[in-house]
Amino acid sequence: MIVENARGENGEQYHGMWSSSLTSSSIRAKPDIETVDTTARLQIVQESMEVSTKPMIYDGDTGGAPEIFAFTVRKLEQLGVSAAIIEDKTGLKQNSLFGTDVEQQLEDINMFCEKIRAGKAAQLTDEFMVIARMESLIAGKGNAEALLRAKKCIEAGVDGIMIHSKQKSPDEVFEFLEAYGKFNKKVPIVAVPTTYNMVTEEELAARGVKIVIHANHLLRAAYPAMMEVANSILTHQRSKEVDEKIMGVKPIITLFPKADGKNV
Question: What is the helix (H) or strand (E) element at residue 5, kind and residue range?
Fold first, then answer.
């Protein structure tokens, strides 16, 4: 789980959770190629929703076949999730941050739009959002392709567009946002500035971005800390040296409610 920021129409900020497929795979020591199936992912979501009142956006990878995505949408909605994001790629899922270092195959846009329509038809309330993740920049196809696909997704009834890039600079994302702003029909825009992280949320919001997802930073912060503690214990053959680097046992156990719903 990771934090994201969303902005309302009046500029107010909301904070929530991002159910990351990378995180769900990594905590099980599995590759991020959809090896953790939908049922297991939904179990993680349910456990998270049981202990948080924060809104959640679900990383749906490719979404699978339209029939599978329809099931996923219905179940996410029942669990109280706010939105699902699916990417317009096909074939063996490869993490987008590989970029063109590995083959990134875009799905036929008409088939992708069929998946969007299936998800929208499956939901029970108007509040749940299906968001389309544009991978054209990741695949090296450029902004013209990304904009064409975004327009098709909007016509199919999608509730939001996520534009993804692995460049160190936000320039190509800014270019997309400028052109997107001229669309006659628009939906909220989502950005994930993992690689171009010099840009601020305010700068993205000024260009029309409504949701900013910081997609995997807590996971990436946890691993170095755990490695440092483990190496120290192995080196010194005791844990005394890491006392200042770790949380006490009592603060940990008081994080969790007792059976009566009250903290210890």
Answer: strand 2-7
Q: 245 is written with which tokens? A: 């680097």
Cα distance between residue 139 and residue 175, in whole Å: 17
Reported as a single tens digit per residue, the pLDDT across 5-33 is 555 556 667 789 999 888 888 877 787 77
- The domain tally of the chain equals 2
Whole-model pTM? 0.87
Write down the H helix ranges in the chain.
Answer: 21-26, 38-50, 66-79, 109-122, 142-155, 171-180, 201-206, 217-236, 249-253
The CATH number given to whatever domain includes residue 84 is: 3.20.20.60
Q: Which of 32, 59, 88, 159 is labelled catalytic?
A: 32
Told to judge if 32 belongs to the known catalytic residues of this protein, a careful annotator would answer yes
Could you tell me the two tokens for 42? 């939904």
